Amino acid sequence: MSLRREVREVQIVQVLAYGILLGGMYALLASGVTLIFGVLDVVNVAQGAFLVMSALFTWQVWSVTGIEPLLLIPVNAALLFVIGWIIYRGMVARVAPQGPSMTVLLMFGIALVIEGTLNLVFGNKFKSVTPEYFTWSVKIGDIVLPVPQLISGVLAIAILGLIYVFLRVSWAGRAVRATAQNREGAALVGISHKTASALAFGIGAATAGAGGVLLSIMYPVYPATQYDWIARLLGIIVLGGLGSIPGAVAGSLLLGVMEAFAVTYVPQWSTLFFYGTILAILVFRPQGLMGSVTREDVV
Amino acid sequence: MDHAGGRLRRHTRVAAVAATLAVAAFGLSACGSSSSPGASGASSSGGGAPIKIGISLPLTGDFSQPGGEAKKGYEAWASLVNAGGGLLGRPVELTILDDASSQEQVVTDYNRLISQDKVDLLLGTFSSLLNYPASSVAEKNKMVLVAPAGGSPKIFDQKFKYYFFAQQATAPNQANPFVQKLLALPADQRPKTAAFVTQDDPFAAPVIASMQEQLKAAGVQVVYSETYPPETTNFQPLASKIAAAKPDLIAQGAVFEDGVGLVKSLIQIGYNPKILFQTSAPTNGAQYSDAIGIDNTEGVFATVSWSEKAPTPGNKEFIAEYQKQNGAGLVPAEDAADAYAAAEVLAAAVKGTNGLDNVKLQEWLHANKVTTILGELSWDEIGRPQGDFLLSQWQKGVVEIVAPDAAKTTDNLVMPKPAWK
Q1: Which chain B residues are closer than 8 Å to A231 by Cβ?
Q2: What are phi and psi of B371, to 5 degrees?
């Protein structure tokens, strides 16, 4: 009896560990979407496409050079930052005054263009990045932690930490936050809304750049994979509260753990659990876990 | 079988919703996207007006990959036939329209082919999703539709007379050769326990359900049996649960990513079953071996409709023509071979009835067996194929056919599966 209970406890800790690692990864990806929404009121439905673009780029570089894929994290983040900046200044900023529904369509169009381009360049086939450690795992007692998941979870949380510190401490980061909180107020103290917005959009895209590298060592990727991810990410940020980074982190961890438990014990219901949780929480907290209720009259 | 079709279906769903939104918003029309007809190879054959064959294929959109391969298969067939003097002494001419992977467009396409282009014969499109609406158009017009992919039970529920699925078997019978192989093993080598796990997919799930039923009846103990939704991406929890049950056999109804995901997770947690069977995923060649590492493919079983190594009649000629048209050394995809076989079926009926009367073609196909590069095919009264798939196994980095005897590429059988590398 006690042995049985012990087995069960080990299993629960094991599943919890899977869930937290998964949640860390979700948190990184979702934070980019929520940051862009918080600052710009733009729902970046192209985040999944950015992510897959970065993953396929990683595959290309890795398969040609054999370089350690994780070294591409800063490269891809920088690349996507620039692409994000250009997309914002070139397109989003022009369409934004037309309202959120127009920017959703714009971002969706951008996602389709990216997907189509990736299809042309890489073909409609799965690509897998398999560095030496892709099947390794670490054992702590009876708990098994797969190395790619461990790396991704830890790095995702570390990168998120960096972004958080940047937003809290640096002048530019505080300008972004100020713009998110009150655009007119920020403008009064000399913060350029355009620059702060481009910066936020760039950072949001850069999280997909970093996340794409991590994604590539965990899952096979092909261009249409973007739909899986964007559906999940939108679910997470709605749960966390649109625009709230801590909310996105909390939502990610909650859903990561929920998903791991559901796949273990009731696999056929796991998708239902994911979206059911979101639904249930929204019934009681329509603003999400950490979203604030905006006073429309202030804006 | 709809390998790629299954994998892509859920993306279609999301994309369809999103696309509808975009289309509505921009006030664009979804139609008018068909590409110009690609007539092919009517040059080198004998006299008489060409026999016109109408085809719609998903050349763009989500099924563009398999659709493009099917086009190559049809075209390889057309040029081989024309080089050999055509059909009934007349050249064949293909009119291939693009249905953009859309269920609406495919209906428009086949209606146009029949009423406007007045084609003599039809060949099917790719995937059950698209052949389902296409089959009603063909049935209404009393035109035979031989489909290279489209074995979903839903299609046969319509009980159509003019629809023929040109592969060896429907989904529920796909695992039969594997079950027979296991039961033919000496008692001490047969699996005693088995885990059955499948994606909730119309092509994968029936395969595993029927296998489970058959093996259970043969005395194999079922220690795990679960279904997971297509959205599942993380298989470590599932793999841990399966490993804890210590099955001899793991049989997975996999599409692609899920097959890779489970194998990777099993390696990571260090559980190696004696026998591993997966639907679809292992038949994706390099996409599969690149994803799990080529050494880890050793011994993995799957069922396939076609193999480039199978000694079936005409197979070599097909591969040579495919390579002539598309590049030396290119191995045709299974989807191209299935399309080629569908065209062979239609041609056999034309020759058998010595004419283009679709009523007679239909009667002939219900009554006769046809030899194709997939092997011998035959159908019941509603177009369900009556044969068996080929049983394949990864051996030393390549896919070998281990059953049936007629299509075998090796006598070797890797059993039990060696340890993960």
Answers
A1: 14
A2: -90, 125
pLDDT tens per residue across span A29-43: 999 999 999 888 899
**% of chain B with per-residue pLDDT over 70:** 89
A144 touches chain B (CB under 8 A): yes
Ordered structural domains, chain B, with CATH: 3-168+311-377 (3.40.50.2300), 173-304+389-407 (3.40.50.2300)
Tell me which of A81-90, A125-134, B3-12, B50-59 is least confident: B3-12
Cβ B58 vs Cβ B96: under 8 Å: no
pLDDT for the residue numbered A289: 86
Q: Please, what's the b/e burial string for B44-76 (b: 16 or more CB within 10 A of its CB; e: otherwise)?
A: ebeeeebbbbbbbbbbbbbbbbbbbbbbbbbbb
Could you say which DSSP state residue B90 is in?
B
Residue B299 region, left (φ>0) first, then alpha (ψ -120 to 50), else beta? left
**B237: which chain A residues are within 8 Å (Cβ-Cβ)?**
15, 18, 260-261, 263-264
Do A27 and A87 form a contact (C-beta atoms < 8 A)?
no
pTM of the model: 0.85
| Distances B129 to A28, A38, A54, B134, B179 between C-alpha atoms, Å | 36, 40, 31, 9, 28
Q: What is the pLDDT of residues B288-297, one digit of tens each?
A: 999 999 999 9
ipTM higher than the 0.85 cut: yes
B150 part of contact set with chain A, CB < 8 Å = no
| B240 touching chain A per CB within 8 A | yes
